[in-house]
Structure formats: structure tokens, C-alpha cells
């Protein structure tokens, strides 16, 4: 499940992921909000918090994530990923080299530091 975090404001969107993410999570929650931000502000900053209950992506959701990430990369200034398994951190480091987005990962206990960084 993806929930929009109440700390979101202006062109900054925070989303909390728990359990196994689904196609509906992307199509009904995350993608519409990110598209709205990009349309409103021309660019966006995104904080993705993978909480302790995060179990990964269903195959369709993983595909949605990849497709949307490619589409949005020009309008995404910064992305912070907080928590999640080690392979997510490695994937984000790789993404940092492929896209024009500044990407940084944080351990779960540094959520506030991630907010501070995404807002700077």
C-alpha cells in the first residue's frame, strides 16, 4: 500500500510504502499525484519511505514503477529513498548514474534527515 505523507507540500511529495505494492497503488495513488505536481510546478522532489512492513512489488507494480520513473526523470529534481532492503539502495545508486535526478538513500531511522535533504 502507498500512502501520501502529510509532510508533502509545494513540489515535494512524500509517499510511505508498506506491504506489497500493487498496480493499483501506482495507478490510483502515486502516479496521479506525481503527474499533478509536475504539471503544477514543472518539476518535483520525491521522498519514498519503505517502512519496516515493506515487502516489495507485485510484478505489475514493478513494471509501473520502472515505466513511470523513465517518464518522470526529466521533471524529477531529487529523490530520497528511506529504508527498504539493501538491493533497493543498490538500485538507487545505479539509477543515480542513469538519470538526471539526484538520488540519495537513507536508513529507516534517518527519515527526518531525508526530509531535510529533499527540502534543501
Can you walk me through this structure?
With 120 residues, the protein is α/β, with parallel strands linked by helices. The protein has a single domain (2-119), classed as Transcription Regulator spoIIAA (2-Layer Sandwich), CATH 3.30.750. Helix content is 46%, strand content 33%. The chain contains 4 helices and 5 strands, in the order ββαβαβαβα. The protein has a 5-stranded mixed sheet with strand order 1-2-3-4-5, sandwiched between helices. Helix 1 (23-41) links the parallel strand 2 and strand 3. Helix 1 runs parallel beside helix 2 (59-72). The longest helix has 19 residues, at 23-41. The protein is globular. 30% of the residues are buried. The model has no long low-confidence stretch (mean pLDDT 85).
